[in-house]
Amino acid sequence: MRRQLLYTLGLGLSFFSVFAQNPSSLLAKAEASAIQQSAYSRIKMKAERPRYTRDMELRSWNMGNAYSLVQIVSPERDAGMVYMKADKSLMTYSPRTGKIMKLPSSMLMQGWMGTDAQFDNILGAASLSQDFTHSYQGKKTVNGQECHLIRCVPKPATPVAYDHVDAYLSVQNDTWVRLVFFDKKGTVSQQMDALHFKRFDGVLMPDEIRFTAKDGNQTTTLTILEWRKRPDLKPSWFSESTMKNMDSL
Amino acid sequence: MPLTTRMAWRNLGRNRRRSAITAAAVAFALFFAILIRSLQLGIYGHMIHTVVGGMAGYVQVADSTYWPSQNLDVAMAEDPRWLEAVTADPDVASATPRLAGFTLLSHEKESAVAQWTGVDFAREDPGFWETRLIDGRFDNASKDGPYPVWLGRYLAESLDAQIGDTLVGMGQGYQGSMASDLMLVAGTLRLGNPELEKRVAVMRLEDAQAYSGAYGMWGTVMITPKNPGESFRAAASLSQQHPMEYASWTSWEERMPELQQAIQADSAGGIVILFILYVVISFGLLGTMIMLANERQREFTMQIALGVKRPVLAGMVFTEALLMGVLGAAIGTAMGRGVVYYFHVRPLRLLGDIAQAMEQQGWEPVLPPSMDWSITWTHGAIVIGLTLLASLWPIYVVYKSPAIHR
Known about the structure:
The complex is a heterodimer of chains A (about 250) and B (about 400). Chain A has a 13-stranded antiparallel beta sheet. Chain A has a single domain (about 25-245), classed as Clam (outer membrane lipoprotein receptor (LolB), chain A). With about 250 residues, chain A is an alpha+beta fold. Chain A is globular, with a radius of gyration of 20 Å. In chain A, a hairpin with a 2-residue loop joins strand 11 and strand 12 (about 205-215). The longest helix of chain A is centred in the N-terminal third of the chain and has 18 residues, at about 1-20. Chain A is about 15% helix and about 45% strand. By secondary structure, chain B is an alpha+beta fold. Chain B folds into 2 domains: about 5-50 and about 260-400, no CATH class; about 60-255, no CATH class. Chain B is about 55% helix and about 20% strand. In chain B, the strands form 3 sheets. A 6-stranded mixed β-barrel of chain B has the order 3-4-9-6-8-7. A two-stranded antiparallel sheet of chain B has the order 2-10. Chain B has a two-stranded antiparallel ribbon with strand order 13-14. In chain B, strand 7 (about 165-170) and strand 8 form a beta hairpin. In chain B, helix 2 (about 15-55) packs antiparallel against helix 10 and helix 12 runs antiparallel to helix 14. Chain B is elongated and about 100 Å long. Chain B starts with a helix and ends in a 6-residue tail after the last helix. At the A-B interface, loops of A face strand 7 and strand 8 of B.
C-alpha cells in the first residue's frame, strides 16, 4: 500500500516537471539579457538612512560577471576611488594614497561604501544560472507583474554566504523582478527589486533597482543612466595599470 | 583629667603584659585589615583607572544610539560653547572630545585592524600623554603631509612599523564615505591596557575628522569628574545642568557593568575574609577581658567595699578598654599605613603566568595599594568597637561583684 503511494507520488512529480518550464533555462535567459554582456555603464546610487541620505555616481566596466571595474565620480571626497574584481581577486585604488590594496574576498558580501548594495552586487555576483541548483516553486505576482518563483540553492563549490536565493522572473519578458537572499538562519539578508525597465543598446533591463537590507528601514536605489555594449573589453584590460590611469577613459 | 581616666591609665600599667596582649590583638587586626583592604581597593582603582580613565572616560557624552556599536555615523556636531561651560563646572576635572572609528592599517606586507582615535591635544592633560609615550614625540608633528599617528605598542609591533614609516589606512568613513589616506608613524604608546595597545592608533582630532570625512564632528566627549568615585551621580547631575540634544550621559558603571560586577563580587569575598579575621580577634579580646575580670575580682570587691560606686568602677573599666583599643589602633595604623606606603612607592609587580593572564584581561600586572584614609578610619572604628564590646564582660563582672569577698 505504502509502496503504491510512493509510486503514485513519484509519477505525479515527474509529470509536474515535464509540464513546468525548465527553471535553469529561465534563469539563463534572464541573465543573458544584461549580466552576461561586456558593457560600460554610468550609474547613480542613492542610499537612504534614518539619519542621512547619500548620493553617488559611478562609472563601471564589466566583462560578464568575472571581470569588473568601478570608479567613483562623485561625491568630491571619494571621487577617483576604483574597485576592481578580476577573476577571483578584489582590489581597490585610492588616489589619496596612490596605492592599490588587495581586499579579502569575504568583503564581497559586505555593504559597499555605506549602501545596502553588497560588493557583490556592484562588482558582479555569482551566476544564478550556473553556480546554483534550481527548483520551480510556481507563479506569484510581484510589483504588479506575474512572475515565476525559482528557488536557487548554491552548488557546494560556490563561494557565497547565502543559504538560498528566491528569484522572481517575469513571465512576460525575460527579466528578473525580485531577488531575495536568505542567510543560513533562514532570514532575509538582502532583497533586490527591479522597479523600472528600459531598453539600452537594444537590451531590455531593469534600470532602477532598489536594495533593501535586513531590517527594511534603510534602502539604496540604483539607477542606470547609461549603458553601452563594449565587446572590445578583454580580461587583460582589467589590470592594475588601468586602475591607476582612469582619467583618460 | 578626671579621676577615673587617670586611674584607668594607671591600671593599664599595673599589668603591662595583659595590656600589651590586648593592644597587640587590636593592632594586628587593624594592620591586616588595612593591608588587605588597601591592596584590594587599590587594585580595583587601578583596574578602573587603566580600563576607564585613559580611553573610555569616567563619564561619557555621546549620541543616545552610540553605545554599544560605537558607530561613527552617529557622531555629534561640535559645540565649543557647551564644552566651555562643562569644563568650567566646579565638579568637572576635565572634558575632552574624541572621535573614533575602525580602519585597516597596512605597512608593507603587514596589515591590522586599528581603532583610530582623534584626540584634542590642546585640551587634554599633556602630562598624561607624555607619560604614555614610549618612543617618538608629540610636538614635532608636521601640519601638512601624511597624518601623524601614534600607535599602541602591540599594534606597532604587529605592523612591524618604526617611527617615520608611512602606513596606508583604509576603512569606512563618516556616513558612507571612504576613509583612505597615508599616515606617518610619529610615536608608540603604552596605555596600561594591552587590549588597547593592540588596536589603538591615536591621531590629532582635526586629522581624524579629515581622515573620516566627519568634519566638525565629535564622536564622544569624555568627562573626568573631580571625584571619579562619584561618576554615576556626576553623570546624572551634569546632564541636568548642561543639557545637549539627542545626547546621553553614561558613567563607566553603565557602559561596563561587567567590570563593576566583577569588582563587587571580588570585594564581597574580601569582606568575608575580614569578617572571619574579626571573629577570631573578637574571641581573643574576649579572652583577655575574661582574664582581666578574673584577676581583678578581688580588687573590684575591695573598691566596692570601700564605697566606690559600681557605675564609676564600670566607667573606669570601660575607659581602660577604650584606651587599650585606641593605643592598639594607633600602633596598627602606624604599621598598616607604613607597609601600605612602602607598596605605594614600590608597587608589587606580578610575574609569570598570572601577569600574562592579567595583561590579557586588560591591565598592567601591578598591585598598587589604595592610600585612601577612609579604609583606616572605618576599620580603626571597627576594632575599637570590638574592644569595647569585649569590655562588657568585665563591666558585667563589676556589677555582679559582692561587696564582701569570702
